[in-house]
Amino acid sequence: MPPCAEADPAAAPGLEPILGSTLALLTHYARMPELSLADRIARNLALIARHPQASSLLQSVCTGLFTDWLGPLEVQDAPRGSEWRDVWPMPPLPQ
């Protein structure tokens, strides 16, 4: 079984492509917020936080941002459809 990329820092993808894709995701999210984009942003921030080419300051910042992008646990554990209940009221069900 081959070792994973996390175990071998030389096998890690470059930092710049991850940063570029994170900026693109953030731009897309700013235009049209979607929970799936927030998840991808959190994953990219986690990659940056563990990346061997990232400075300790960048790793620290991305670690904090990662937890912010994950969101509160009660929202993640909420029933499907109630994720945005505090942001926008749910439309009434058609009768």
Strand content: under 5%
Poorly predicted regions are 1-7
**Individual helix count:** 4
**Relative helix content:** 40-55%
Average pLDDT taken over every residue: 76
Total beta strands: 0
Indicate the overall shape. Answer: globular
Structural class: mainly alpha
Biggest sheet statistics: none
H/E series: HHHH
How big is the Rg? 17 Å
Straight-line N-to-C gap: 56 Å
Written account of the structure:
The protein has 95 residues and is mainly alpha-helical. Helices cover 55% and strands 0% of the residues. The protein has four helices and no strands. Helix 1 (15-31) packs antiparallel against helix 2 (35-50) and helix 2 runs antiparallel to helix 3.
Spell out the blueprint of helices and strands.
Layout: H1 15-31, H2 35-50, H3 56-70, H4 73-76
Helix pairs in contact: 1-2, 2-3
What attributes characterize this protein structure?
mainly alpha, 4 helices, globular, 95 residues, 55% helix, disordered N terminus
In short:
By secondary structure, this protein is an all-alpha fold.
